[in-house]
Write a structure and sequence with these properties.
Elements lengths: L1 H18 L4 H10 L4 H26 L7 H18 L5 H20 L15 H18 L4 H10 L5 H25 L5 H22 L4 H23 L1
Helix pairs in contact: 1-3, 1-9, 2-3, 2-10, 3-8, 3-9, 4-6, 4-8, 5-7, 5-10, 6-8, 7-8
Length: about 240
C-alpha cells in the first residue's frame, strides 16, 4: 500500500503544480477507491496540500508567476475559514460530504468553461479588501470541510470575475491553498482527525510531482492549459460518481 500511495502522491503533486490545485479534488476520490473512509481521506489530503502548496508557491514565486498583492487578503480569509472548518467536519455525514464535493466540482467546471481568455499583462479587475477576505473565509470553510484546498473555486473566480490570465490565476490559487490547508491541518490536529503515517507518504512523494508539474505549466499554451484543467474536473467527477453509485 505504501508504494501505491507514493505513486499517487507523485501524480497528485504533478497535478498540484500544473493546475494550481491542492490536489484534494483528485486525491480524495482515489483514496475512497482504495478503501479509505472519507474523513480519513480528507485528513491525508490536507497533509499533502500543506506540502505541495508551500513548495509549489515557492517555485512559482521564484519564477515570477506568483504576485502576492491582493492574494494575501483572500489567503487570510482562507486561513480563518480553514480553521473553522475543523470544528464543522465531525458533525457532517459522509454522504453529505460526498454530495457537497460533487456540487463543488460542477460549479468549478461550469465557471471555468464559460470564462473568457485573458492575455498575460492584461488589466485585471479588483474588489474591496473586505470582500476579498470574505470570499477567502467562505471558500476556506467550504473547501477544507471537503478536504480540498479551495483553489478549484478561487481559480475559476479569478479567471471569470477578475479577468486573471489562466496561469496567473493558477499560481494564485495554489498560494491560497497554503493558508487554507495550514489552518485545516492545525484544526484537524486538535481534533485528532489525521492519518499521519499514510499522509506523510503521499505528501513527501508529491514534492517530486510538484516540481515536474510547474515545469510543464510553463511550457504549455494558455488554451491547452485551460482544456487540461477542464478535463481534470471531468475525471474527478467520474471517479466520485462511481464511488457514490
Amino acid at each position: 500500500m505504501a508504494f501505491i500511495l507514493a505513486l499517487v502522491g507523485a501524480m497528485i503533486g504533478a497535478m498540484s503544480g500544473f493546475f494550481g490545485i491542492g490536489g484534494g479534488m483528485i486525491l480524495v476520490p482515489i483514496l475512497l477507491a482504495l478503501g479509505f473512509e472519507i474523513k480519513d481521506a480528507i485528513g491525508i489530503s490536507i497533509i499533502q496540500m500543506v506540502f505541495s502548496s508551500f513548495f509549489g508557491s515557492y517555485l512559482n514565486w521564484k519564477k515570477g508567476s506568483l504576485v502576492l498583492g491582493e492574494g494575501i487578503f483572500v489567503g487570510l480569509g482562507g486561513f480563518l475559514g480553514g480553521y473553522i472548518a475543523g470544528y464543522i467536519t465531525p458533525y457532517v455525514s459522509d454522504r453529505l460530504l460526498q454530495i457537497l464535493f460533487f456540487g463543488l466540482l460542477i460549479f468549478a467546471l461550469l465557471r471555468l468553461f464559460f470564462s473568457k481568455h485573458h492575455e498575460e499583462g492584461a488589466a485585471t479587475k479588483t474588489l474591496p479588501k473586505v470582500l476579498l477576505f470574505a470570499i477567502g473565509l467562505t471558500v476556506g470553510i467550504f473547501s477544507i470541510t471537503l478536504g480540498v484546498g479551495g483553489s478549484i473555486i478561487i481559480t475559476p473566480l479569478l479567471v471569470g470575475m477578475l479577468h486573471y490570465p489562466i496561469k496567473k490565476a493558477v499560481s494564485a490559487g495554489l498560494f491560497f491553498v497554503v493558508f487554507s490547508s495550514v489552518a485545516g491541518f492545525i484544526s484537524r490536529m486538535l481534533h485528532g482527525g489525521i492519518d499521519f503515517g499514510n499522509g506523510l507518504i503521499v505528501a513527501v512523494a508529491s514534492l517530486v510531482g510538484v516540481f515536474i508539474g510547474i515545469w510543464l505549466k510553463d511550457h504549455v499554451s494558455h488554451k491547452n492549459h485551460k482544456n487540461a484543467l477542464l478535463a481534470l474536473y471531468l475525471v474527478a467527477l467520474a471517479i466520485l460518481v462511481k464511488k457514490m453509485i
